[in-house]
Amino acid sequence: MSQVRIKICGMTRREDIHAAVACGADALGFVLWPGSGRAIEPARLAALSAEVAPFVTRVGLFVDADAASVEAALPYLDLLQFHGDESPEFCARFAKPWIKALRMRDGLDLEQAVRRYAGAGALLLDAYRPGVPGGTGETFDWSRIPGDLGKPVILAGGLTPDNVATAIARVAPYAVDVSGGVEARADGGAPRHGIKDPARLRAFCHHVRAAGATTIHAATP
Ligand SMILES: O=C(O)c1ccccc1NCC(=O)[C@H](O)[C@H](O)COP(=O)(O)O
């Protein structure tokens, strides 16, 4: 029995880092893919990384980056998250633990992906929208996740304070990952990419802790 871990992704501001840590986040994600509205400049990673408290995992998120870009970020990261079409060999060539994001497109053979990415510490399962590598704010059919995948599952995609307890009850993931669901809202209700809302952060973490306290995980690292 263990608590469901919490990763908050898309951190761009020091105050959001402190708010997320205060809420009990276990890991914080920095998007190092320039195509995202949540991307940070590589030069800013050092400063933001220094704001993260001890024992909180700093995760760098890459989408088909070149090896030199990943290497340059390594001093400021604890864990690498590969969110594109990276091969297992590419993911494994850096001197850091890594996880692989899989977007749950129709026809994806999860068992085969588990075998292919055997060196990953966990698999992050995310929604699939063509042309958008991540951060879609959309859920996928959680019933597609087998009970025992043989790897820790990080559930992502459209999680919010309102649905995360249900997601944990259905999937019993090792961890949950959220970005848009804890962002501040613009006037029309759309998430403001890269700007976290402290109240949403608190609500999200509260619901995870409440829901996950008695969850039994099929696979732990
Ligand atoms: O967040 C992004 O903008 C992003 C862009 C490209 C690849 C991955 C990205 N995010 C990765 C994450 O780990 C997100 O937290 C995950 O996709 C879930 O996002 P959301 O549905 O907004 O909670």
Automatic annotation (TrEMBL):
Q: Where is the signal peptide?
A: none
Q: Per UniProt, which keywords does this protein have?
A: Amino-acid biosynthesis, Aromatic amino acid biosynthesis, Isomerase, Tryptophan biosynthesis
Name the Enzyme Commission number(s) assigned to this protein: 5.3.1.24
Question: Where does the N-(5'phosphoribosyl) anthranilate isomerase (PRAI) domain lie?
Answer: 6-205
Reactions catalysed: N-(5-phospho-beta-D-ribosyl)anthranilate = 1-(2-carboxyphenylamino)-1-deoxy-D-ribulose 5-phosphate
The cross-references to InterPro entries, in alphabetical order and at most eight, read:
Aldolase_TIM, PRAI_dom, RibuloseP-bd_barrel, TrpF_fam
What pathway does the UniProt record associate with this protein?
Amino-acid biosynthesis; L-tryptophan biosynthesis; L-tryptophan from chorismate: step 3/5
- Keyword Isomerase in record: yes
Residues in coiled coil: none
GO molecular function terms listed in the Swiss-Prot or TrEMBL record? phosphoribosylanthranilate isomerase activity
Give the enzyme's main class according to its UniProt record, as a single word.
isomerase
According to its UniProt record, which protein family does this protein belong to? Belongs to the TrpF family.
The protein here is known as N-(5'-phosphoribosyl)anthranilate isomerase
